[in-house]
# Entry
Amino acid sequence: MSDLHELDLVRWIATRAPEVGDDCAVLACEPWGDLLVTTDSVIDGVHLHWSEHGPDAFGYKAVARNLSDIAAMGGEPLWAVIAAVLPRGATRAEAEALYKGAERAGCRLVGGDTSFGPTAMVNATVLGRAPERGTVLRSGARPGDAILVTGSFGRSLPTGHHATFTPRLTEAAALLATGGLGAMIDVSDGLSTDLWHILEASGHGARLEAAAIPRRDNATLEEALNDGEDYELLATVLSPTGRTDGDVSWPAGFTRIGTITDGPGAVVVDGHGNERALVRGGFEHRA
Amino acid sequence: MSDLHELDLVRWIATRAPEVGDDCAVLACEPWGDLLVTTDSVIDGVHLHWSEHGPDAFGYKAVARNLSDIAAMGGEPLWAVIAAVLPRGATRAEAEALYKGAERAGCRLVGGDTSFGPTAMVNATVLGRAPERGTVLRSGARPGDAILVTGSFGRSLPTGHHATFTPRLTEAAALLATGGLGAMIDVSDGLSTDLWHILEASGHGARLEAAAIPRRDNATLEEALNDGEDYELLATVLSPTGRTDGDVSWPAGFTRIGTITDGPGAVVVDGHGNERALVRGGFEHRA
# Structure
């Protein structure tokens, strides 16, 4: 096994460039605003299969993954550039299908670089603008915040969801508009791991209700918490019970799955009131 | 052979997005300015060899190719993001060498995505700002303009120049500051092909002096004109003889190799006054 972990590398880059953000780099272009930049690759045999999913899915997923990152920062996507590596012998129709798939994800395509290589691969970089009140950060969670999610979790790979998901831009904008948003992240590494990203950044804990977590395709609780590639939003917002100036509700499309606690630590509570500690990628069993 | 040609694809994308520029996309972020965006990949076995050149060269070349594009538009590079695909089993030291190579190219690294795959590959996207007077375009050549180049041409692959070149940002800025710049492009496809990009965009012709073309490593004239991967600048500027308001000279680092003509057509003239027609990637022989 390699000694190399992506999270470590991202932190290493971040120590060298303060612009590195949670899901996107945040680049000051005042007075225009803060430019968001995010980049992701889709590789044959790793994220999709060229012979099974086809070039359209490669273009679509490469852009959609980035749009999910922009949504998590509360941003507005503006432009996408694509660098495609096509298998040798690829046809013009396949190349066009790839670029049309990229466009279909819903961001204006303004540039493309096309090469041929031994492995099909599409890299997309998406540029967007941060919300005027500032980007939404993982560190913004507050004790008492409701923990909300879009969609459902688990079994993304066997159901094909990972190749066809719709980035949650509309939902993110609606939640941002409520004014109660604390932290937000897109769930790509798995619900438990991405919740921990918020907890570590904010210094707080969480209490999840097992029965409240929406599961895709009859996923088990473990699959819902840990499978990953869900590309849903995980957000914390001011809770109705945590405010004195009246109720706050959340827009359509969100489900409450728990509450931010003073912490530290995260637990999942079942219908019988039994608690289990939640760690990255799984459970620790305890009384 | 595939029916797919990169130039065709770039044109196809350009018909769908007017922001697609010559070497970069040009994105209006007023009042901040025009944002330049360019993306390029370096693939193992295509542009470099991982086992021979090493991860540092992959990072360096991926960013440097983009900086050469930014230079050709007269722009100022600001930020780079990297998407690296490492061969399985790559070490942390190799990943860091790759990112340090990217930094060494001279642009601020603000984001990175790291994956593992069957083929090593680095994609870099560089963001910059266009000059206040507007980007330098290929279409700006005028009859009578002197044709200038930086550096020398040919045999870039056997000499290793293609992996170690210095992007011509300083030279581009100095030429821009003269106020006489017409068209500019970076020479990656070969001097003859990239000159034709200027001639087609401007609707004019060219007369090159064979003896004036600087050659790398005793390259033949054919190699200098057609090898490619030189990453030098090819520019047209107001000529001293083409102006009535006094002489214009050009900054250090540029060599004059010919003159823009009314056209159409391009010729190369040897020391005996013999002309040969210059086409993309080679000569057509004529009297």
Q: What stands out?
A: The longest strand of chain B covers residues 76-87. Residues 243-247 of chain B have pLDDT under 50 and may be disordered. The domain at 138-284 of chain B is CATH 3.90.650.10 (Phosphoribosyl-aminoimidazole Synthetase; Chain A, domain 2). The helical segments of chain B are 6-16, 50-72, 92-104, 156-159, 161-164, 169-177, 191-202, 221-226.
